Amino acid sequence: MNIENKLIPGLPPGFEDRWNKKLLLKKRLIKVIEKNFIKYGFDPLETPSFEISENIGSFLAEDDGNPMSDVFSFSDGEKNITLRYDLSSPLARFVAQNNQELPSVYKRYAIQNVFRNEKSGNARYREFTQADCDIVGNVNSAQANAELCNLVASTLIECGLNKDQFTINVSNRKIIQGLIQDLKVPQDKAIKVMRAIDKLDKPGFGLNGVEDLLKKERKDKSGAITKGANLNDDQVSQILGFLSIKDLNQLKQKFKNSLTQEGIRELEDLFEILNFGEYPNQVKTNFTIVRGLDYYDGFCVETNLNFKAKNNKGKEVDIGSICSGGQYNKLISRFKGLDIPGTGISIGVDRLLFVMSQLDQVEIDQQKPVIVCVMDEKYLKNYYKILETLRKNNINSEIFLDSKKNLGKQLTYANKKECPVAVICGENEFRDNKITLKNLLGIKGENNQSTFPKEDLINEIKKYI
Predict the structure, then answer these.
(1) What is the pTM of this model?
(2) What architecture does CATH give domain 20-356?
(3) Fewer beta carbons within 10 angstroms: which end of the chain, N or C?
(4) What share of the chain in percent tops pLDDT 70?
């Protein structure tokens, strides 16, 4: 193949290779998250990457004319199939399919990748890992939602964040839905209003961006146009006035719609339960949180950082929520014969990773292997005996896999891999039943090599790992 025909290595936008320290940190975060989910009484569930499109539905797209525009869908014979875009819709399908075998209250967690065909950037990926916990069943909603808030706080602290570094913001969709009722906003425009409000704290939006989306349209910096809800000036003014209110009591006095009042009471009940737990000070009200997904219909939560992260160019960026979720009473009822409420939260593992990899708050034990160098091919059996001894003592270790390479090249390999120590044994060592170790992380110029009796191998090597 000539050079003109050779492939250029690369990834499509929104996808990322992860390796070395970053991948080790991700694996550590997942391990901590899963351990905490189990501690709170949640059981694991794994669902396939693909779902039948009509079962999973589409709750992402803002283009009514193309409801599947934000997901990856494919034809599969007589059915279309879609890569899951979240873990809640597959859960709804699973519960509907297996309801008779599940407990009356089903607490499940899932840690899997999801896929979204949307614009990437600033820790927004088109494939990313979510860690979800959901409570499905007829329960006291204040208790269930308080449990989820406590779980979020506990998990993020276990992952290495300090309490002052994040805030769990809560609201209730019924509050704004009551206002939308009073303003006589048509049902087909209500979801556009919700999605407009949900963007208030997104980078580049603010009140002006929300106002544009409540009116005719919004044009972003690239020139792309998003159609708005087309509300009149009075409707827009009242919604923007609502967004300026921060106090729950003020909200309670000003808006008397019965649905709004119901949402306020549910928040009051939530805070009463939160006060019984360890993390009430982590949770604050933010009435602008309504969640963009259409299946939420009550309690909503978004967890935001109290500091800025940096992108690859070192510029401070707002990466948005690192954990979000809410209550959905009708998601499962889309399937015949079932009407089971649910509530859940989702931690964006890769977004959390983006942040934690910039903070010097989590120590990563890389556990790099000991390298057994091959000085002479005729002693290959001896080298493998040393390797067997190391591995039987649970010491990460490997043997250099090309006996024809000289010691210098073997040590170059070991240094690039950041191996802590090398076993270097030749004819003299094997004759005298001894082992020589070289400390590869030692200070250059010092004596980093030692020789000792073979039976002391494990004790000596533990000094370096």
Answers:
(1) 0.88
(2) 2-Layer Sandwich (3.30)
(3) N
(4) 95
